[in-house]
Amino acid sequence: MAYTFRFIPYFLVLIGVFCSAVALASEQPLHHQLKVKLLPATSEIQVEDRIHIPEHMLSQTTATRLEFSLHAALSVAVNKSDANVTQLTDPMANHARLVPLKRYAVTLPVGQTSFLLTYNGQIHHAVRDPSLEYARSFSYSPGLIAEEGVFLASSTAWYPRFAEDMVSFHLDVRLPAGWDGVSQGKLLQEQSTATIRHIVWEEKHPQDDIYLVAGRYQRYQQTTGPVAAYVYLRSADEALAQQYLDATERYIAMYNQLIGPYPYAKFALVENFWETGYGMPSFTLLGPRVVRFPFILHTSYPHEILHNYWGNGVFVDYRKGNWSEGLTAYLADHLVSEREGKGVEYRRDVLQKYRDFVDKEKDFPISQFTSRHSPSTEAIGYGKTMMMFHMLRQTLGDEEFTQVLRAFYQQYQFQQATFDDLLITFNAQADQDFSTFFQQWVYQSGAPNLVLESAQATPKEQGYQLTAVIKQTQSGAPYLLNVPIAVHLAEESAARQMQIKIDQAIHQITMDFPTRPVQIDIDPQFDVFRRLDSREIPSALSQGFGAENPLLILPTDVSEELMQAYQTLATYWQKTQTGSLEVVRDDQLQSLPANRTIWILGWQNKFSQQLMNSLAEQGVAKTAEGLQLNGEHWQQNKHAVVLTARQPADPDQTLLWVAADQSAAITALARKLPHYRKYSYLVFEGNELNNVHKGQWSITHSPLTQRITQTDDTDFISDHVGTLSPRRALAK
Ligand SMILES: [Zn+2]
């Protein structure tokens, strides 16, 4: 489970007010020299901003007129400015915005390159609840100054925003004693007196935001090499801090080697006062619970550190699609899995999410992705993009792939980059034309469906000839694909693995082997982004939560209390899940519909046995006192159990059974199960639902694996399966 979100400039994405050109590398960014005083008790901020206008924004012959916007609650002291500043009537005033804005114009005479703006006011946008549907949603505030803490970003409009995305800054902050503050870049100065905490942060490289986060922090630090590691916690915890400091060093060393020098003077873990998982340039802002989840250290944490390269080192031009989440997921989350030998499972989960949550209506090209706000946007913006980079690596090989990424990082550091810039870099560095590749994966929605047919082997004078047909059955033009194939030879312990290029709807394979081929697998390690066949995916909760129009069947033969608890669960899912859930009682149905995804609730549900029957192959059985599962017996009176199975007559549909005999456990299941989407079966203990058993069914009937028909011996039987070679991880 990763709880990470990039904090994106909502202005740009939602409103598109600023239509600026992207700053060129050679150009100086606009520079803010800020003196800030924060008064958390009264939500007040006082600012003096000396704004240095870069040459390319100034007219050399006439006065320069520039417009900027600022939070409407901040009043500008015009008489304190050394330039002519006037407030404009704002044509966008009634437009939906996260914060109210005022627009201003400033006129600078020829030769003047900076001006001073003094302003102050109160900012307090209360933290709002997250959306219920998406388990990964967080509470949100565009900005606030409060006793619990301070969060200011470009979304707050707390500093003047010009029609230029990129800025650099020098930030001098005064806070009450006992407080501390963090921004991007380098901590230049710090000082504490009995009443005041004074800190100075600076970042000279172009940034797409200026953050100011403050709170009553306990700070820890450790420096080896050029990068300082900091941890800011809201309560002292030295052991926890040390884990983060060590992890910071470890991951920065790894990415230095893989991609290039880490771009900032520090990396800080900062604890927020509400639950977030934001990655900012040179720090990450994680909520109090998130910080203390043990798995964060090797899931979200490397991901956030890597965002300093992708997203916060090379910036994203959100108007042209966000490539940074997929690349970060690939080189952090996927790489961590790959190092543990779990790359195949990771990619299968990614493809499964796409299969379970993205139908035609929800699909869109990754060039339109900005940030995730639902399982389907995650499956595309993170999953499909990640797989695109994986396929580029498959095509180029590890060495060349990382070379291209290094070149991309070097060339676009501290600038905004787009998918087109990636294409240009891949073409130039690898000396190949990836235009078709980018066209089909970046600018088109959808995915190929692969089907394997007619695999046969015929003896030749020497050895055997294998023939088979691979079909692309999706609608629309066929994709150009490099498809990995494994062929298992009767006399070899390791399967032969190769890649074939296909670009037609029907592709005939003909290959010669020295000994008898007995099995062929198409894409056995999930290296191609494609729509999985339902038989390649174990049944799992995600199919229940992702279904358009699932049926939910309540048990009748239960106590009033249990009935009430199941009913409440159904109502909760109706409110919080995407599909439109139809709810009935088991006594209202004669038989179980065969062509729908169905939730069957309760040990006592009259249809529960039908689900057991379809899991007989997995050794699942109901007993008088409970359930037999994976060789263990789970007692009905102590355990809550969840099982999933394919609908026997329609493997695209899923049966899901949820059963508990305590109403408190049922209530807890309602909230908890959406977090266990990828599992085929789950067992929980007690009313607090401690998870004691979970897993995915193994796949036995993949249609992309075929035993090969032997034309010389139709009775030939072999159960030989060779081994597949594991892929070396991209970094150690
Ligand atoms: Zn991310």
TrEMBL record:
GO terms for biological process: peptide catabolic process. Pfam families: Peptidase_M1. InterPro entries: Peptidase_M1_aminopeptidases, Peptidase_M1_dom, Peptidase_M4/M1_CTD_sf. Residues 303-441 form the Peptidase M1 membrane alanine aminopeptidase domain. GO terms for cellular component: cytoplasm; extracellular space; membrane. GO terms for molecular function: metalloaminopeptidase activity; peptide binding; zinc ion binding. This is Peptidase M1 membrane alanine aminopeptidase domain-containing protein. It comes from Nitrosomonas stercoris.
